[in-house]
Amino acid sequence: MYMGVELNTKAKWLATWMGLGLSPKAPGTVGTLGAIPFAVVAVYALGQSAAYLLFVFAFFLFGTYICHLTEKSNLRHDSSEIVIDEVAGYLLAVTWLPNTWQTYVYAFVLFRVFDIIKPPPIRQIDKKIGGGFGVMADDMAAGIAANLVLQWLYYSTSVLGMQWPQM
After folding, report:
1. pTM assigned to the model
2. pLDDT digits (tens, 9 = 90+) for 101-158
3. HSE of 58, CA atoms in CB hemisphere, 13 A
4. Domain boundary assignment for the chain
């Protein structure tokens, strides 16, 4: 037990995004796939607004805390089973974009490419920042990189398609 949280249950369940990070193959990719429905619901609930961005920031802080707890339990930095950072990064990747299936698919692909390849400065963030913040920070940088490419696609092409009607 650490800070009142039984780590083998609640924190690990959240850190592994309800167990998706325990996938024997490509846990980061599986965790990011699990982020898609969460992002769709969040966008429908909040719209592409300042409230959505505030939600993403709050989720980042929450994820940082969960990663901190999990690292204290596992004593390993950025274990592959921790995928809540992929969820946060994906949420950032789809920020302020049209609510289309194309956005979610392109965001998935671009986010995973940036997260796996880790071009500078993502690689430096991954190597130099420790703790729960470090676990989350490189994925947030990958989300920003994916979002910048998607913003360019949105304003330069029609590849992101027509927006779904809001409920």
Report:
1. 0.90
2. 999 999 999 999 999 999 999 999 988 999 999 999 999 999 999 999 999 999 989 8
3. 7
4. 7-156
